[in-house]
Design brief:
The chain has 212 residues and is mostly helical. The chain is built from 13 helices and six strands. It has helices at 29-35, 45-50, 61-64, 66-75, 78-84, 89-96, 106-114, 130-138, 142-154, 158-172, 175-184, 191-198, 200-210; strands at 2-4, 11-13, 18-20, 38-41, 102-104, 123-126. The protein has a two-stranded antiparallel sheet with strand order 1-2. Strands 3-5 form a two-stranded antiparallel ribbon. It has a two-stranded parallel sheet with strand order 4-6.
Length: 212
């Protein structure tokens, strides 16, 4: 999915952060990145992987998610439970889904191309900082996160369904299908999570990009 905003020099691309193992990127991706002067991606991936923990003074997940945490305690080894107890809710969700074999996606290629120096390549900027993403996540109530984690415990294979179906829709450029899949097969099915985590910072950042 690759769109040009009329009356501007801004193009919007529907990217995938990761693709299923041994699956190719959409054919428009390399040329779109190569032609860009400025590329916005969601956030710095390395930073996001380093900051999944709650602050030391914050309540642990055992206190915050009483209903789903009882299920976690009954299903997982104690050592694993201790490690999960200090995670942020979204990080916990990632740990509970069944693992999927992945290859790097669009952002990885954009970063690799931008690192080339001959000829000068596009500049990389980010739509949000990790602190902004964490602040949006914190707006979702513990009750909603408790329900979302319970749903993940009931649907651990949702990650596979989400990835494969999203990839097929992405390759076909079917925006409506991707929104439908995301809203049915992930924690975006909970409106509070979808609204707080997915939209506000990105909308502001896109408006800033349009103003450039």
């Amino acid at each position: 999915m690759y769109f040009e905003i009329e009356g501007s020099r801004v193009h919007l691309a529907g990217t995938m952060h990761r693709v299923p193992k041994a699956h190719r990127l959409a054919p428009w991706v390399p040329s779109a990145i190569d032609a860009a002067r400025l590329v916005y991606i969601e956030h710095e991936e390395a930073a996001s992987q380093q900051h999944p923990l709650i602050s030391p003074w914050a309540p642990r997940l055992a206190q915050r998610l009483p209903r789903s945490w009882k299920r976690i305690e009954s299903q997982l080894p104690r050592a694993t439970i201790l490690q999960l107890n200090v995670l942020r809710p979204r990080a916990l969700v990632s740990c509970l889904v069944e693992p999927v074999d992945l290859d790097p996606g669009v952002e990885h290629l954009a970063l690799a191309i931008s690192a080339e120096t001959h000829p000068p390549r596009s500049q990389i900027k980010h739509l949000e900082t990790i602190a902004q993403a964490d602040a949006l996540e914190d707006k979702v109530s513990d009750e909603v996160w408790d329900e979302a984690v319970s749903w993940i415990l009931d649907n651990p294979a949702s990650s596979t369904t989400l990835l494969e179906s999203s990839y097929d829709a992405w390759m076909a450029g079917d925006v409506e299908a991707i929104d439908r899949i995301s809203s049915n097969d992930s924690i975006n099915r909970f409106p509070a999570i979808k609204e707080a985590v997915s939209k506000p910072v990105h909308q502001r950042s896109v408006r800033q990009a349009l103003a450039r």
